[in-house]
TrEMBL record:
This is Aldo/keto reductase. The lineage of its organism: Bacteria, Bacillati, Bacillota, Bacilli, Lactobacillales. Signal peptide: none annotated. InterPro entries: AKR, NAD(P)_OxRdtase_dom_sf, NADP_OxRdtase_dom. Residues 11-267 form the NADP-dependent oxidoreductase domain. The record marks K76 as: Lowers pKa of active site Tyr. Substrate binds at H109. GO terms for molecular function: oxidoreductase activity. The active site is at Y50 (proton donor).
Length: 280
């Protein structure tokens, strides 16, 4: 478990991008989400953009019968829904699709044209309404985060969700150190680099394979354990497989040693200069 501004949640939850739109996969995906909920992956990350609401619908379907208070539910709104009335309407539509009356965390999906001070004010209004417990941002770089904290109420941001994995370490140069300094947790999306197909080249790295062997794990589990190594990061891998879901859950129990981390740093070096924010 990790501490998210006083809220205890599992370090590895469930992403839902690309879920809910394929009728041929719907039952399998729903069953995988339900398996995750019943085996400890009680954080679900979704968005109004994913499948134009399809992902929220399958999440709502999967949550039926599971105690709502035991789920930490995250969704996101699009930049053109950042104004007051558009945000309120977008939130209501998301809640309806999800079959719930509140979100635990509502994220501004990426920076848009609405002034950040207005966006924060609107999110605070949603929080006062009781329809969201917390708010945060996504796909924010360091300049965006600094601007956020400069506006009234900006310090109330719960988290920033960015792409982060052992093969994409741009955040390690300045974003992550800055967020840790300011006590802002990271939500890492694509923590195994879109590798649910199990065909990703990173997993063939000999160092990754060696560390995995020493922990009686697979390379994907080591990638996840690496992402959540600091106890302040939430990883949200996406999978349609119950087997892989259990592997993801088990990855949270892996404690990488100092020697492991040194070896992995050598194989996948930290950036030595500012990099553009990776986005998919």
């Amino acid at each position: 478990m990790i501490d998210f501004h006083g809220v205890k949640i599992p370090a590895i939850g469930m992403g839902t991008w690309h879920m809910g739109s394929d009728p041929g996969l719907y039952d399998q995906q729903k069953a995988t989400l339900q398996y995750g909920l019943h085996h400890g992956a009680t954080v679900i990350d979704t968005a109004e953009q994913y499948g134009s609401g399809d992902s929220e619908k399958i999440v709502g379907d999967a949550m039926k019968g599971f105690p709502r208070q035991k789920i930490f539910l995250i969704s996101k709104f699009l930049p053109y829904h950042a104004t007051k009335h558009a945000m309120a309407d977008a939130l209501d539509r998301s809640l309806e699709r999800l079959g719930t009356d509140y979100l635990d965390l509502y994220l501004y999906h990426w920076p848009g044209g609405t002034p950040l001070a207005e966006v924060v004010n609107n999110m605070e209004a949603m929080k006062k309404s009781g329809k969201i417990r917390h708010w945060g941002v996504s796909n924010f770089d360091l300049s965006d985060m600094k601007e956020l904290l400069s506006v009234p109420g900006g310090h109330d941001v719960m988290a920033n969700e960015d792409l982060y994995n052992i093969g994409s370490r741009g955040l390690d140069y300045e974003v992550l150190p800055w967020q840790r300094k300011h006590g802002i947790p990271l939500i890492a999306y694509a923590p195994v680099d879109q590798a649910d197909t199990r065909g990703n080249g990173i997993i063939k790295n000999t160092t990754l394979e060696k560390v995995a062997s020493e922990h009686h794990a697979n390379a994907f589990q080591i990638m996840l354990a690496w992402v959540v190594r600091d106890d302040h990061t939430l990883a949200i891998p996406q999978t349609d497989s119950q087997k892989h879901m259990q592997e993801n859950i088990d990855a949270a129990k892996i404690k990488l040693t100092d020697d492991d981390l040194k070896a992995l740093d050598k194989a996948f070096p930290k950036p030595t200069h500012k990099q553009l924010l990776d986005i998919i």
